[in-house]
Structures are given as C-alpha cells and as structure tokens.
C-alpha cells in the first residue's frame, strides 16, 4: 500500500469515530489531565491492513526459530545459570505486557483523539502478542530444559514470591490510578521509551552469549513494535503540553515514573545480565556501561532533555542519582545479593559466584570484591544442607534489609533509607523520592490542587509480613515451592542435581522461624526506632568472615 493511500485510509478510519448525542458517555477511567486545547494528530499512521501481514511474518520467524532450537539441541548448549534466572524473568515479563494491553483502553477513554485511538488499538494488539509469544517461550523452556521445576509453576509463583511480587506491583502500575499517569507517563513515556532498551536489547545480547538464541529472536520481535508505542506516548505528551494546567502533573509524573522504573527495572534486568551470565569476557559491556549508552545517552540526552523547549522541568537530579546508584553505590549487586539471600523462598536455583566472576566484577566495578566477595564465598560454603542453615539465617555479616513501601525493592543503599509514619503505619523507603511518591505524589491533593484520580500504595507491600512468625518449612510449602517428591525444595543455592544428598529438603529448614522486619519496626518504641535507623544507615552490610 502506498504512503498516499495509507494516509487516506487512516483518515477514513478517523472519520468513523463519533460521539453519542443521545447520552453522556460514562467515564470509566478517570484522569486529572485536561485536553480541551489539544491538537488531534497522530504522527505515525498505522492501519490494520498493513499491520497484520507484518506481524504474521514476524510470528512465523519466531516460531520457526523455536522449531530450529529444538532440532539444533540448543538446550544441551545453553548455560544452566542463565536458564535458572529465566524462571524469574519469564514469570514476570508477560504480566507487564498484558497489563500494557489493558492500559490501552484507559488511554483511549482519557484522550479525545480518534487518530491516536487507532494507534492505541494497534498497540493493544501488540501487547497481547508480546505476552503470548513470551508465554510460549516459557512453555518451550519448561518442556525442554533439564529442570522444568520453577518454569511449571511460574504463573502462581511470580505473584506470591519473595522477588516476583516486585514485578507484579510494577505491572499493576500501568493499570491503576490516574489513566494518563499510568498508561502514558509511567508506561509509554518512561518504561517503553527508556527501559525497553536494556530489557529488549541488552537481555537478548546476553542470552546469545550464554547459548540461548531463542530469547533474542522473541525479544527482538517484541522490540520492533516499540517505535509505535513510543510514538503513541509522544503524541499524548504533546496533547497534554498544549494545556498549561497539565504541566504540574507531567512534572510530578515524570519524577515518579522515572524513579520507580529505575528502582524496579534496573534491579531486575541488571541482576539477570550481571549475575545470570557465564560470559566473562573483559570486553563485554557491564550493565552500567549498557545503561550509560542506552538510557543515559539515548533516552535522557536525546529524548528527555529536548522536552525542556516546551518549558517542562526534567528530573535531571533523579537521572544523575540513578546513575550514581548503579555505578558508585552498587545497586544491582546489592539486589542480586538480596535475591540470593532469600533463595529458600524463591523458585529457581541460584549458584555462587566463582573466581572467574570475581575477577570480571572487580575489573568492571573496582572495589566490588571488598564489598561482596567474602559474602559470595560464604554463600558457596553454605550451599549444601546438613551442616548449616540457609545463609539468611547464619551469621555472615549480612543484616536482612527492610523493604521499600513504594517500589518494594529493599532499602539496600542503607545510608539513603527513609523511615516515616504514613497513614498511621511506620514505613521504610529506599530513598527520599520513593517516600515523596507515597507521602506526597500519590495523594488526593498535590501542591494545593485536587487530584482525586491518583492511586494509592496499599495492601501487603512488605512481603515478609505475610509469613511473620511462620516456620520456614511451612512458608515454602504454602508457596508451593516443593518438587514432586513432596520434600525436596525447588530452589537450591547451587546447580548440582546429581546427588540427592546435596539437595535441600523441607526437613533441612524445619524449625527456622521466619520474621518480618516491618512488623518488628512497628513494635519498637520511638527511641528504639531512632537508634535502629541510625545503626541501619551506618551498617555497610559487608561480610568480613574468614572462610
């Protein structure tokens, strides 16, 4: 179809839009944004007649690659460490995708622009497709990988686990609260425009380096749709900027969306890339180097900063803070340490870092060994049952962290932790910005302006409170993380399945009490809490034990 005929067809589609005059349409998804003065244009015209053949060809290539992987014995060559971390990754990622699909009706309902509605409808189909092929990839891994346990229960596990619930709240952010905040600023302007670079480009690169060429095929197919989504987000952004009343909300939402995406996406993807890989070539980019190129340069400098010409205040300070946390404050490495600490209540196997890993990390992140090396050596020493408890319950110089109420990633950069009483409850936050998000931004009033459509951070946001006072064996049984024999744990702190004596069972963790830091925090007196907070911030949480 020629460009001219495509434009005519697109124009014809928009003419079919109509507003009923016999009744007032119900507003299903509220927003505090106004679009009375907005332009009604879509810079990227897309119609289904050209869209479906293109997507069909892409699907054929994806499924052809899957068939080729099976015939080519890919699963005999792929790194086991990499595949184990895919149990977490592929349990989480389909949910944000399908949440993004559900977010499109919110945006359509909130934005009075028939041209953009067409683009959003196409994006909704994209997101359903993405979720479907990712689920199919996970099913294929489950059927052909040496250890399917952890793949076979991921739909339940990601929603109830120690780590997966962080990803769940991330995806729920696309579909809750103010329709424009959720479906456009948080999802499209930040998550899709910025962080899909590391998600759908860096992850596939690392997968290929570890012998997995299926994930690159699937995720490059996904990434090729993102330009449409970025265009949709930019169109709505320009519509919002046409009305001065929206500027205050946009600046609020950019701060929230940027910081929450950084806290969650960098935590997850950084860990998968750095700690799920066996590729330790010195010339391979670290996650920090990838982030600097694809997010700092490509997104922040090329996309965000130019928005200043519209008078929008860009969160420069938060971008710089995110970079500082990743490179100087070891954010990703602290997250990986936290994930490994909680291995008994996860649903995949996490092996210890080796001397080769140590050398690579020290090369890419000078000072890494002083902070983390001894702890990983302790993790390796405590990998097998019979002589010790899981590492979280042994004295190795590591204090279990408190969760951030907002992003749900723990307050791992301890000097930045904030403790405040909000809504009658003492809460911990990983940073001042996460505290601001909960206590200031997500409220029915913002800087003197009523914002009734903003969401709230409610519910059991500190996972450990669900099992406070339980026996660890009962926690694992309740989660369903037990293998078919009824006693062996799905999670293990090593990759050795050859000897049953090396595998942890429910009996090995029976009698260990599981506790909630937040419950303990709220039981303290004010003086005790103040003393504890000062000690928490001052503790470097570094193991110095001699192995």
TrEMBL record:
The keyword Oxidoreductase applies. One of its GO terms (molecular function) is monooxygenase activity. Signal peptide: none annotated. SUPFAM superfamilies: Ferritin-like (SSF47240). Pfam families: Phenol_Hydrox. It catalyses: propane + NADH + O2 + H(+) = propan-2-ol + NAD(+) + H2O. It comes from the Bacteria. It is an enzyme of class 1 (oxidoreductase). InterPro entries: Ferritin-like_SF (IPR009078), Phenol_Hydrox (IPR003430), RNR-like (IPR012348). The keyword Oxidoreductase applies. This is propane 2-monooxygenase. Keywords: Monooxygenase, Oxidoreductase. It comes from Candidatus Protofrankia californiensis. Its EC number is 1.14.13.227.
